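Narrative summary of target 7.
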Amino acid sequence: MINKKRLTNLTRKLLKIRSENPPGEEYKIAMAVKEELQSLGLRIKTYSFQKNRPNIIGISKAKSPKFSLLLSPHLDTVPAGNGWKYNPYQAKIVNGKIYGRGATDCKGNLACGLEAIRSIVEERVKLNYDIIFAATVDEETSSRWGLIPLLKRKILKPTFALILDASSFDIVIAQKGLIHFKVKIFGKKAHGAYPNLGINAIEIAAKIITELKNYRFRYKRHPLLKPPTINIGTIIGGDKVNIVADSCEFSVDLRFLPGSKPNDILRQIKKVISRYTKKFKLEIESIQSPYEIKRANPLVKILSTATKKIKRKAKLKGSEGATVITFFQDLNIPAIATGFGAKGMSHATDEYAKIDDLFKGAKVLEEFLKDFNDVCI
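Modeled conformation, tokenized:
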């Protein structure tokens, strides 16, 4: 049975441990999670791909497992920053809310996952599948020291994956892809008093940016996602006010829909740039594919049913931003995300989670784990 007081105390304990990323301070919280999992009798393994940043994996083995299910929250948070009314590392409770950096993203979900497994162990529920609990580092800055190498090296090889990193009981079944790239424009220097003698790379970049922002990409509408977006994140150019700038570089965050191909999009981008200059360089920093899973998948159906059992409505949603569920598709592992924090509180000043929601969230996970016994593969 889910114990509300125990869950609250565990959430507060985790919130009081600083695990900001950057710089990547997950060691102490990783050890706290390791201790929790050890107390449950799980098989524990630790994998570090960067010093003092351990990923903690606990495995609950079934007697004759038919498959495996991964539950995975992350350990790191964004920096707390300034301007808080309540200390971000005191885990203060006010009017049924626990305040602290990571309360919603993602330590409340981390606590819910641990409490759900504890309840399953205490009740001696016989499962016909293995539970793999992976608390990972580095989610907030790309997962390159966390989930990505765990999957690429096949340390994690689950049949199904449920990522605990969302809010308001939403079930994320689709998300946009992303392309991060830089564009460098080359011009020609001249004296600022004689701009006609030079080629101003900043002015060329400004025209390109304007067209990119207004460009209508070809795409197929998606019922859960908004149209593609472009954000110009940084711009650098020129040497001095009285010199015609011979270079300008800007970075772009582009989000695109399932059904669109990155190479097709990049060809369109290059075509736009070429209308203004032939002297440019486009550097791709990262590409992350879009993702979607069918509503009929057992993950979606059983989690939706479990949520209804505790009288909460689970909304099937798409994610405009990038979550880690996309990393599973190349391995043909069905994955969804859910979570129980407060809507709009991720990365916010005075971040909080509602205690009642965490309690109900842990109950949802407990029901889900029990009902997942009925999956046929």
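The domain at 177-288 is CATH 3.30.70.360 (Alpha-Beta Plaits).
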